[in-house]
Input
Amino acid sequence: MKFETGTRRAILWAMAMLLASSLATVAGDKKDKPAPTQKVDSGSFGVFIKGQRVVTETFSVEQQNGASVIKSQLKETAGADPTSQKSQLEITPTGELLRYEWSQASGGSLTVYPNNDFLKETITTSPGGKPAEQPFLMPSTSAILDNNFFVQREVLVWRYLAADCKPEAGNLKCQQDPAEFGVLVPQDRTSLRVRLELVGKEKVSIRGAERELMRLNLAGENFSWALWLDDQDHFKLIKVAIPADNTEVVRD
Output
């Protein structure tokens, strides 16, 4: 992925983005000391189905030694396990996958990593069980969008804004057609293509208060989501609507 000067400025203008300082580090003297860990975003999302909270996702996005590390934990509202699922995604400054790990408290885990020019997934269905392997003919630049981890959608939006949008007269100007991304859904052991498109500013109700946020549409072959981000606060993801499932996701 090639970043022209204007695009670099757009990244820095758009957000304290997970890729921005890493790009600056790569461009600098390789003998410089590693930059300290920098927190880009952290918090939690409440997942609501028909108005009832069913899951809480607690997450963090950090820059560590030139890489971005995205951690997430899911806790079911009615579940006994303190953490029902957790994941850790590590990517390079240009968005290439270094490693992805997922596990659940009831047993089972998986890992995705680059293997030569493509990706490989290793799956363990039970503790001590023999792992199975599945290759994917996908480049390491493919995005990870695993089930139920909404912070990974935030990271994909940041990538879209950095690559396909630029500031113009105080607003973001994006390419006319939706941008397409190849993504891997590790828990489903499947790949797909998704489209992201900037819609514009909208007034949205967040916990009973009206806010003006930036809307993007995320769509695939069998789904269509609306995402709202705060362009006044580093383009953090604030809300997701999934009408087909009567589901809303709201930042706490």
